[in-house]
Design a protein that fits this description.
single chain, alpha/beta, globular, 198 residues, 5-stranded mixed beta sheet, two-stranded antiparallel ribbon
């Protein structure tokens, strides 16, 4: 009986060990791309024009269309370069803490990267508390929405950018940040204020 129990304990240890080994924190899973060229694209949109419409899949399984918010909500689009990178993994959870700021301006946030749905799903689950905003995949055709806005970099990832769009669908502010740094929340607050001054 003792041999059977020892054998059972060894078998359980072998089954559980891979789970323990795979239970890494998000920080342990991040890829550091090093220092990149701060901005590597040319904008195709400008303040005062109607924001180009798009439809993208969300990690929830639904399709989100920019124009579905017209007449209902102000929209802030947050383009980030890539999942499982340090700055992006810090930026979006920060918007969870600032949710009240968006709600104060009757604004929805749309998070967009060129990553696939499975990648985005895994990444956002590792972030911790569920993000309050839709996370959208611009994976295929690769970077089509980022390209439409002039935010697709030569290496195939999106710039780190915020696009502020009012309820009429008009772009009121654009902030393209250094890809190596998390955008200051103050810039986000200034952009949201511009949505109220139509």
């Amino acid at each position: 009986m003792k041999t059977i129990m020892v054998g059972f304990a060894v078998m359980m240890a072998l089954l559980i060990a891979p789970a323990w080994a795979g239970a890494q924190t998000l920080k342990d899973m991040l890829y550091d791309p090093g220092v990149l060229k701060p901005i590597d694209s040319t904008l195709k949109v400008k303040v005062g024009q109607t924001a180009p419409d798009f439809t993208l899949p969300a990690i929830t399984g639904e399709k989100v269309r920019l124009s579905q918010y017209r007449g209902k909500k102000n929209v802030v689009i947050s383009f980030v370069p890539a999942a499982f990178t340090p700055v992006c993994s810090d930026q979006w959870p920060g918007y969870n803490m600032a949710r009240g700021l968006f709600e104060q301006h009757d604004a929805i946030l749309l998070g967009i990267t060129v990553d696939s749905i499975p990648t985005l799903s895994a990444w956002t689950r590792q972030m911790g508390p569920e993000l309050w905003f839709p996370v959208l995949s611009d994976f295929w055709p690769h970077g089509a929405v980022a390209s439409k806005y002039g935010l697709l970099r030569k290496d195939g990832v999106a710039e780190r950018a915020l696009i502020f769009i009012d309820k009429k669908g008009v772009i009121r502010d654009i902030v393209v940040s250094d890809i190596n740094k998390r955008p200051d929340l103050e810039k986000c607050a200034i952009g949201l204020d511009k949505l109220d001054k139509k």
